[in-house]
Amino acid sequence: MKALQMVDTKTQYLKIKEEVDAAIHEVLDSAAYIGGKAVQEFGNALNAYIGSKFTITCANGTDALQIAMMALDLQPGDEVITPSFTYIATTEVVALLRLKPVFVEVDKKTFCIDPEAIRKAITPKTKAIVPVHLYGHAAPMEEIMAIAKEYNLFVIEDNAQAIGCDYTFSDGTVKKTGSIGHIGCTSFYPSKNLGAYGDGGAIFTNDEALAEKIRMTANHGQKVRYLHDLVGCNSRLDAIQAAILNVKLKRLDSYNSARQSAAAYYTKAFEGIDWITTPYTAPYSTHVHHQYTLVLNGVNRDELSAYLTSKGIPNMIYYPVPGHKQKMFSNFGLNDVDLPITDWLTERVISLPIHTELEQEQLAFISSELLKFKQAK
Fold this sequence. Notes:
The chain has helices at residues 9-15, 17-30, 37-50, 61-71, 89-96, 115-121, 141-151, 208-217, 239-249, 252-269, 301-310, 340-346, 360-371, 373-376, and strands at residues 54-58, 79-83, 100-104, 126-129, 154-158, 166-168, 174-176, 183-187, 201-205, 222-224, 227-228, 276-277, 292-296, 349-352.
């Protein structure tokens, strides 16, 4: 059995090496490293896949979130509601723009933001909601959009971990996550379900005027060269990454299917084990398993992590310290923030290897060794 990894990007590359190498050489031969054919083709293909009207590529997922908030003209002191149980980038950009992060609770089963918690957190200063489709599962977007409409709020989807996830509305309509809110944002960090061989990101919207503003914001605030109509930034997806992503986008559904198959193996192996809660999938969502995250019941997580590591099984904790307890937000007066579900999860979650290249032998080894943990104590 080959060595286990949390994400095996090398083996994935080797399977598409010829096509990826050809795409890279086409960019090198063209000498169009910024913009050009590769970026345009990928943007168009991604737009069609997501089902949005407009897609603007950028340098990374964090930039995507920042640009989205800049394009919405959010002002210092405006409140942005977001889960605390997420990667720091989601809320980092809120503070960077001198907005106020308002951390709310998540659902214990899906790990995604709780609509009722959103409703309770709304004040006259609230301007936006940032739901996170965590670990590959969709946030409850139908309820969130209804709340946003009621209170005239913007919704920015953080879709960095769930590209390819389908959301089914109560009327049967199906949309891809990232295409539902006023703006959707995603990341192409190498470990993502659709990962580049460097960094990259994209922003989605169905609003033409907003799309133009996003495009300008990402390009120094200019629509016409050297005429800068608003304060922007410099955030571009380079052509080589776009060429690689265009090759991989054609395989995204099969990549997600492979992740789902691996997750199904784990879930069956852990069925009926009282100290393990496996990932839940709500009726409205598919699950593309960016992470396969367990919730532990009555066992010491640090001991389990050390045990798995000793057996050559990588494992990670996403995320051990929630946003409302991070030092970087200490000046926002969060001492009174009480998020018991978030705190409960941060003490109990652990993620196992999940990627497109996992073999049955590896899955069997991981699951069997994990189940031996209690016996080994």
